[in-house]
Amino acid sequence: MSERWRKEILNRLLDKYERTEAFKKGELPDRRIILRLYGASKTDLPAYEIDNHFVRKEINETVISMQEQGLVGYEWFRGEENHIMKRLWLDLEHIDDAYRAAGRQSAKTLATAVINELEQEIEGINAEWIIAYYSDTKAYIQSNYRTGSRISEKEQERKNLYQMLRFIDGSSFSTLTERVFSEKCFGDSKFFETQMRAPLLSIMRKYVSREMTDAELLQSIGISRYPEPLEMRGNILVNGNDMSVLESGFCIYSGDIETAQIGIPDTVRRILTIENRANYFAYRYNADELVIYHGGQYSPAKKKLFEKIAAAMPKKCVWYHWGDIDLGGFSMLLRLRKEILPSVQPYRMGKNELLAFQSYTQTFSKDYADKLRRIAENEQLADCRECIDYMLEHKIKLEQEAMLT
Q: How far apart are CA 341 and CA 319, in angstroms?
């Protein structure tokens, strides 16, 4: 008997078994799980070539041996008994023996183990996107008794993933380069890049943003290839230095934000964060303003900057945010209100702008509308509902670059 062919055949049979509706319900199928070898227009085992005597004989002997062990049944092609097999099937009464002989863990056993792991991980996580990923993965496995492409079947790969997501969720770092992150998390400076970067980005594209680039996604959780520049223009003091003399603006690199001392003169009346870089540079600020480049969903380092700005704001100063009039723009405004300052006001993010620049608006899908509708239910966006309701009614959104035309 060939061990190679035994595992190949059993794994093909077990794959078919695990795809049945009966398996998902925890029942035995009422029909045989069959591999067709010869006599049909399509074979389930292409290697079984009747003209290849040595391979055909080896497979025949393997199947006969497996039948004697109670793993499979088989049927000869009529008129070719003891020569050509027509089909074989899984012996469902000895399914556990089949798994052992294939060197494979039962999908139900694996599913139960992974579900238990996910439940334990969820208990210690705070980040909403990680909880959403774990919860959706758990629900998928409970419905299908399979991990699918959502999480690895290999225990060590799952452990690596859990370790990384716990580290991201529980760390207070503002920013780390990829290799420093990898060293701190795994004790290997290249492990993240070679093994974990791709699976992390795959999760984040689905649960954080599909619009952000890979670099922006990683930056949003404080991981970057190089230190992040935190850009601003206007009236501000950094470590006692008046930065307003730099009319074109300046930046603080993320590695310095923890120790940077921020001061804002009492003459400053408005702070404006701007999502888009083109709008940031096009905006002509006044002496009583501080303008900050917001970018996409902000990183831990930029959050630290915003916290220091909020703490240094003069009493009569108002914080405004200018973003796209879309799901992303309002989610950024909401996040600023939740995490930085509840009184942050929208700037040029209303119905009037949609009407004024209507020829530049874009349409969106039903799925997008559902997400926009959900975010609008948050009480902290009550003042934006007129605009969002108009967007939903007409299925339009507007990027802030259009306002530069």
A: 8
Query: Residues 294, 320: contact at Cβ < 8 Å?
Result: no
Report the SS3 class of residue 230. Answer: strand
As a whole number of angstroms, the distance between CA 78 and CA 12 comes to: 24
Token pair belonging to 217: 């996604």
| Among 314, 292, 289, CA closest to 305 | 292
Question: Are the C-beta atoms of residues 294 and 332 closer than 8 Å to each other?
Answer: yes
β 176-177/223-224 pair status: parallel
- pLDDT of amino acid 29: 87
Report which DSSP code applies to 325: B
Q: What is the C-alpha to C-alpha distance for residues 38 and 22, in angstroms, rounded to an integer?
A: 27
CA–CA dist 118, 12 (Å, integer): 28
Cα separation, 149 vs 113, whole angstroms: 16
Six-digit token pair at 296?
Answer: 């996409």
Q: Is 233 helix (H, G, I), strand (E, B) or coil?
A: strand
Cα–Cα dist 43/203, whole Å: 37
Q: At 233, list the tokens.
A: 């223009």
- Structure-token pair, residue 350: 């209303």
Tokens encoding 309: 């700005």
pLDDT tens column, 249-277 = 999 999 899 999 999 999 999 999 999 99
Q: Both tokens of residue 178? A: 């990829």
pLDDT given at position 1: 65
Q: Which among 368, 356, 360, 358 is positioned nearest to 331, based on CA atoms?
A: 368
Tell me which residues of the chain have a pLDDT lower than 70: 1, 40-41
Instruction: List all residues 6 or more positions away from 158 whose beta carbon is below 8 Å from its beta carbon.
Output: 114, 117, 151, 152
Token pair for 113? 């183990």
388: left (phi over 0), alpha (psi -120 to 50) or beta: alpha
Tokens 């723009």 found at? 329
Place of tokens 């008794």: 145
Pairing outcome for strands 289-293 and 270-274: parallel
